[in-house]
Write a structure and sequence with these properties.
Layout (H helix, E strand, L loop, with lengths): L2 H21 L3 E6 L2 E2 L9 E11 L3 E11 L6 E13 L17 H18 L1 H12 L12 E7 L6 H17 L2 E9 L12 E8 L2 E8 L2 H6 L3 E12 L17 H24 L16 H17 L4 E6 L2 E8 L2 E10 L3 H9 L13 E7 L4 E7 L9 E10 L8 E7 L12 E2 L4 E10 L2 E9 L9 H5 L4 H15 L10
Parallel strand pairs: 16-18
Antiparallel strand pairs: 1-5, 2-7, 3-4, 4-5, 6-8, 7-10, 8-9, 9-10, 11-12, 12-13, 13-20, 14-15, 15-16, 16-17, 17-19, 19-20
Helix pairs in contact: 1-4, 3-6
Length: 508
């Protein structure tokens, strides 16, 4: 048994223990959210597992579990994973058991309590979100990687308490047969179903490999069901793996197009689940604010301005962007690099590039079309090309509203056909200190690149390297349960195309 097997099984035990301690009665697992493995636990290291109830709803409760590994020689601790599971109290009679509320003692308890409500909304809308994403995926094909295969394993007995832990354990064993010696990257949601009854005859486990996602379906049979070939669906899970070679370098999977109807269904389903995982990973789990580190220095303004523009161009030039949405004039791409997520929104605008540049580079007009901006005012007109703005944002997830101080650097092209640039990043300005009314936030790298298509139209590309403070505003689009980015992009297009040449706005 590996370190992963032990960690998953022990963690599952702690979840049950914490659930039953709070409820005072036996509990059953309703669902398990995504599990992201950030580090590997190795032999000789100490694993610490902490579980607690973050919020009790009417008849169900959410329990968080945090796994930390410590090196005995250096004493360094690293986070292995944070996961959330939903449990339901098992009624003794016919009536449901209503759970007592969780006592909140610290500020962190209140934060987790509020986020638990957001996570519950995502779970409740998961099925609709998945169906909508599947419809979107039929409109375009991303980078196809691996043809689907089907494997079946039989004669695995289950217990009433650990069917889902068994699912993960067996899937990890089977995927090793399929792709070699894999390293687990994430365990996606374990779906709802029944529990396998103790003493049930053999359980069939089917694993379908699509790209590096492994789908697991568990069915249970009694003798009569087995003879008819009609099993009961117990639960399903999806695991994402990175294959590595002997040197622990990542192995690239060959790109093969799906051929059959089932191949396409599995592939598009994997894309939909990836988007949902992406949203949960970067948005729903609470992350600490990244401290601001760029101090504005008027004596060094040229270097800071050039670095601002260069950072935006470097972000746009990176490889690995993946299409996640495509509707009419708007495409959305994402890029994930070493736990850093970036978003690229590409828009086709029926307006000359120089007019579009004039409108988008004036950030005082940003609140007219972007709902993520409440106000935006110039606080320092550094030069014709550089201004510093103070921005306020709306409330998200019940927190205080956010504010930012950003440097906006503009560049006109040196010759026709080149790209207009509007780059922005946060700076520290002593004259605008943080306020108790707001949460001071940060933009690491963002902005617009505007390229002419012809004399009357252009392509606008908006990039944003998402910081922890900005990520809540992208929550719905990353996970697929909202269209706020598409709606903002459409509003931006409408704003540009309806603006008069002097920059005044006609009525929409």
């Amino acid at each position: 048994m590996s370190d992963l097997d032990i960690t998953i099984n022990v963690a599952h035990f702690y979840l049950f223990f914490e659930a039953e301690k709070h409820a005072g009665v036996s509990c059953v697992t309703a669902s398990v959210d995504d599990i992201q493995f950030e580090e590997t636990a190795r032999i000789g290291q100490v694993i610490t597992i902490k579980a607690k109830v973050t919020r009790a709803f009417s008849t169900s409760m959410e329990i968080s579990i945090k796994v930390i590994v410590q090196d005995m020689f250096t004493g360094i601790e690293k986070l292995v994973s944070v996961a959330f599971s939903t449990f339901v109290a098992k009624p003794v009679g016919e009536e449901k058991i209503h759970l007592k509320p969780v006592t909140l003692l610290t500020e962190q308890d209140h934060v987790e309590h509020n986020l638990a409500s957001e996570r519950r909304k995502i779970r409740l809308h998961h099925e609709d979100t998945f169906k909508n994403l599947m419809k979107e995926n039929n409109k375009f094909d991303g980078m196809l990687q691996h043809r689907g295969h089907l494997y079946s394993l039989h004669s695995f007995a289950t217990t009433e308490r650990q069917p889902r832990a068994l699912v993960i354990f067996l899937a990890w064993r089977v995927v090793a047969m399929v792709v070699g010696a894999p390293a687990v990257a994430a365990v996606a949601s374990v779906g709802r179903g029944g529990l396998a009854r103790s003493g049930s005859p053999p359980t069939a486990l089917c694993v379908a490999l699509c790209s590096v996602e492994v789908g697991v379906r568990v069915e249970a049979f009694d003798c009569q069901e087995w003879s008819k070939g009609q099993g009961r669906h117990i639960n399903s899970a999806f695991l994402v793996y990175n294959a590595v070679d002997d040197k622990e370098d990542l192995v690239t999977f060959p790109r093969i197009k799906p051929m059959s109807k089932d191949d396409f269904r599995r592939y598009h389903g994997a894309i939909a689940r990836k988007r949902i995982r992406l949203g949960r990973k970067y948005v729903i789990s609470h992350k600490e604010e990244v401290p601001l580190c760029v101090h504005w220095d008027i004596s060094n303004q040229v270097a800071l301005s050039n670095a601002n523009v260069e950072a935006l161009n470097n972000l746009a030039a990176r490889s690995g962007w993946e299409v996640t949405s495509a509707v009419e004039k708007i495409k959305i791409y994402t890029l994930e690099e070493h736990d850093i997520l970036s978003v690229w929104v590409e828009k086709h605008v029926e307006r000359p590039a120089h007019v579009t540049y004039h409108l988008l580079s004036d950030f005082t007009k940003r609140p007219l079309w972007d709902p993520h901006y409440v106000s935006c005012e110039v606080i320092d007109w550094v030069s014709e090309a550089d201004q510093i703005y103070y921005i306020t944002c709306p409330v998200v997830n019940g927190d205080k509203p956010k504010d930012l101080v950003v440097l906006v650097s503009r560049r006109r092209p040196l010759k026709d056909g080149d790209t207009y640039t509007v780059a922005m990043k946060s700076v520290i300005l002593p004259s605008v200190p943080p306020s108790a009314r707001y949460i001071r936030s940060e933009i690491i790298c963002a902005g617009f690149l505007i390229r002419a298509i012809d004399s009357s139209s252009c392509t606008v590309s908006y990039f944003n390297q998402i910081s922890a403070s900005i990520s809540p505003y992208f929550a719905g689009n990353l996970g697929g349960w909202s269209k706020s980015i598409e709606e903002t992009a459409a509003s931006c297009i409408q704003f540009i195309e309806n603006a008069t040449d002097d920059g005044l706005i006609n009525r929409f």
